[in-house]
Design a protein that fits this description.
By secondary structure, the chain is of the alpha/beta class. Helices cover 41% and strands 14% of the residues. It contains 13 helices and eight strands. Strands 1, 2, 3, 4, 5, 6, 7 and 8 form an eight-stranded mixed beta sheet that branches. Helix 8 packs across helix 9.
């Protein structure tokens, strides 16, 4: 990994201590990043334990192949964690996972490297794809997106209340000359934002919305959670670290739904607790980074970890 773009793993000990219950088990790190969680999981495994990591980013794959080149218990797949079931079934281990870990959002090296096109702080090509070999870049999407589509993305995924005004400004600028750089897009959005928030870049929410849309982050998360529940064995653990409210809301609702079990039973028919098909039990309440971790790594301030164990 380039020393220029380092990544500090968030909630490292909290996540791995919650995840690993059996050192002989088979675990998934669905978001390898730069391998911080994977390294600590491997420390807690016996020679019989195994870890499969997944990541979309070719730079993460290169890091994994270099960092764990001599580690026989480690394997990595390039792709989305929404392909978790495919990767597990290919190994003949459906329903046998001991744990799945997801550390969501964009990684620090992706944000810090202007050439990846994620940053509104430094100018670079307007890309925003975690996997640059799949799908449209943000610049390509803007060549055909309508005002309504852009406004919907900014509002739905960025929670940006000025999305319609920003969408109009983006299309007006696009008509003059295609928007191909993060710097120009950030300037257009900032000028269209009538209410700058203290301490926050005026393009923050809009960039978040476009990034989540381009990478299908929320759709992939919903799909992965369902797959993880099926692929875990009874007693296996699901641990998810989120970085904004949209992600955390999906995780919280998923766990709560399966903790409560069936809620639409026929009225008037008596039932017992074991008839509710409760498939998960929450392991902890929401866990947040400590004051020290936030001081050491300000990007951890919005992290929320939730965990559950599979019951059936």
């Amino acid at each position: 990994m380039s020393a220029e773009f380092q990544h500090i793993t968030v909630l490292l000990n909290e996540a791995v201590d919650t995840l690993v219950g059996d050192g002989d088990g088979f675990y998934i790190d669905g978001t390898f990043g730069r391998g911080g969680h994977s390294a600590l999981v491997l420390e807690q495994l016996t020679p019989q334990g195994r870890l499969l990591a997944i990541d979309k980013d070719p730079e993460a794959i290169a890091c994994a192949e270099q960092r764990f080149a001599t580690e026989p218990r480690f394997d990595i797949e390039r792709g989305s964690f929404a392909q978790l079931q495919e990767f597990v079934e290919a190994r003949g281990l459906s329903g046998q996972l001991d744990g799945v870990l997801l550390d969501l959002g964009v990684s620090s090296p992706q944000l810090d490297d202007p050439s990846r096109g994620f940053s509104f702080m430094a100018d670079g090509p307007l890309d925003m794809r975690m996997n640059p070999d799949v799908g449209e870049s943000a610049a390509e999407w803007l060549t055909h997106a309508t005002e309504a589509e852009i406004a919907d993305v900014l509002y739905t995924y960025g929670e940006e209340r000025h999305g319609r005004r920003m969408a109009r400004a983006i299309l007006a600028a696009q008509a003059e000359e295609p928007i191909t750089t993060t710097g120009r897009l950030a300037k257009i959005i900032a000028e269209a934002n009538p209410s700058w928030e203290k301490g926050k870049n005026p393009a923050t929410r809009a960039f978040q919305g476009i990034r989540i849309f381009i990478n299908r982050e929320l759709e992939d998360l919903e799909s992965c959670l369902e797959q993880a529940l099926e692929m875990l064995k009874v007693g296996g653990r699901l641990v998810v670290i989120s970085f904004h409210s949209l992600e955390d809301r999906i995780v919280k609702r998923f766990i709560r739904h399966h903790v409560k079990g069936d809620e639409h039973l026929p009225p008037g028919i008596p039932f017992t607790d074991d008839m509710l098909n409760k498939r998960l039990k929450a392991v902890t309440k929401a866990v947040k980074a400590s004051r020290k971790e936030v001081d050491d790594n300000p990007r951890s301030r919005s992290a929320v970890m939730r965990a559950a164990v599979k019951l059936k």
